[in-house]
Amino acid sequence: MTLIDETITIPAGGPTLEQVRRVVTELPGPRSAAILSRKTDAVAAGIAHSVPVAVVAAGGGVVLDADGNSLIDLGSGIAVTSVGNAHPAVAAAIAAQAAQFTHTCFMVSPYESYVEVAEALNRLTPGAHAKKTALFNSGAEAVENAIKIARKHTGRQAVVAFDHGYHGRTNLTMALTAKAMPYKAGFGPFAPEVYRVPGSYPYRDGLTGPEAAQRAITLIEKQIGADGLAAVIIEPIQGEGGFIVPADGFLDAIVAWCRAHGVVFIADEVQTGFARTGAMFASEIFGIEPDLVTTAKGIAAGLPLAGVTGRAEIMDAAHPGGLGGTYGGNPVACAAAIAAISAFENEGLVERAQQIGTILQERLRAIAAADPRIGDVRGHGAMVAAEFVDPATGEPDAALTGAVAKACIAQGVIVLTCGTFGNVIRFLPPLSIGDDLLRDGLDVVAAALAGIRQD
Ligand SMILES: *Cc1c(COP(=O)(O)O)cnc(C)c1O
């Protein structure tokens, strides 16, 4: 079954796909180039892409393109296919559910799989308190709803977000997001009553966690006021902003302050959730129990699903009919989530993320030790990044970062960049990747950096 070219045979995706890096054409090859040319004509220019291929199959640790190029996947479609693309149990669950029914609208006539996903999220998110869950379609939609719920619960309006934060591309989540280009530039006006304060960025601010927390709290108290503040929202490890791991003591101080002032603390775990950081949720690493947790990305192996999970008394603040959406908690997406969550719990993927993290950190630290253009290596589990700088000044080097990423992709390794300053390469391999493939991918990164002249 292919629209590409009836003369080529496309293998099945999933773990049986040949696990090899193989570049047989320039990227894009001719078949991919033809599809990308149609993309240029048919798809809005605002929808960009960073890897110039047309994908036909993926699984384990590779992505196969229409020309037979097999690329090592160190991005998981931005931390989504953590259980592996076309995971057999997920694919089977999707097929079985699609053959039963594909939609009723949960707000019209409910079904068990939605309830089962809610029960799983209530059980797996941090804290033993009574919890409830609502399901949506995307991370941004989950964040929007977490804010709605916090406002209804507190009767307050203001929301605090942080420097380098990323929460989505809808109007409210653009307001919460820090970076102008490409996420916000030209798209305003943005939602009101959103305030941004500095967080904790140990490599660049040199503050301890408690110092950084006090800086934020002082600004909140003096410039916003606790009385009107509904919620504080933060990614426990900031994703798009540069995989920024806050200093110890930062997050718990913010949580304690929120609790003392009746402010809802929302952990946006859309990118950090589901075993990615070597814990089921990154909040566990920092010993915090958020009032609300937003999830998406890794939850359903690529099917669009997102959740807001949190304290039952907060989640129940919204009146019946106040939350929802036509597709939220779609049954096919829920079936995928149940299979993916079972894989996270029963296939040792939390431990696997830790092992992958050890391989990533050891290799990247070794490269950094010999090359001062890598200023910092940081992360947890299979969420690790290298920050590229001008060794003389410590200034961010976005040009070098882009060149390294481009060279990696040309050699058949998918890497993603991020960071407010565009100077971070992030590593988010699927947890189904093998050690050999991962090491080969890191060899390519090392060679790419070495091949770019140091001025
Ligand atoms: C990706 C992301 C979002 C937005 O999720 P979408 O599904 O793209 O709407 C929100 N928050 C964080 C932390 C993210 O990484």
From TrEMBL:
<keyword id="KW-0663">Pyridoxal phosphate</keyword>
<keyword id="KW-0032">Aminotransferase</keyword>
<dbReference type="InterPro" id="IPR050103">
    <property type="entry name" value="Class-III_PLP-dep_AT"/>
</dbReference>
<dbReference type="InterPro" id="IPR015422">
    <property type="entry name" value="PyrdxlP-dep_Trfase_small"/>
</dbReference>
<keyword id="KW-0808">Transferase</keyword>
<dbReference type="InterPro" id="IPR004632">
    <property type="entry name" value="4NH2But_aminotransferase_bac"/>
</dbReference>
<dbReference type="InterPro" id="IPR015424">
    <property type="entry name" value="PyrdxlP-dep_Trfase"/>
</dbReference>
<comment type="similarity">
    <text>Belongs to the class-III pyridoxal-phosphate-dependent aminotransferase family.</text>
</comment>
<comment type="pathway">
    <text>Amino-acid degradation; 4-aminobutanoate degradation.</text>
</comment>
<dbReference type="InterPro" id="IPR015421">
    <property type="entry name" value="PyrdxlP-dep_Trfase_major"/>
</dbReference>
<dbReference type="Pfam" id="PF00202">
    <property type="entry name" value="Aminotran_3"/>
</dbReference>
<protein>
    <recommendedName>
        <fullName>(S)-3-amino-2-methylpropionate transaminase</fullName>
        <ecNumber>2.6.1.19</ecNumber>
        <ecNumber>2.6.1.22</ecNumber>
    </recommendedName>
</protein>
<dbReference type="InterPro" id="IPR049704">
    <property type="entry name" value="Aminotrans_3_PPA_site"/>
</dbReference>
<dbReference type="InterPro" id="IPR005814">
    <property type="entry name" value="Aminotrans_3"/>
</dbReference>
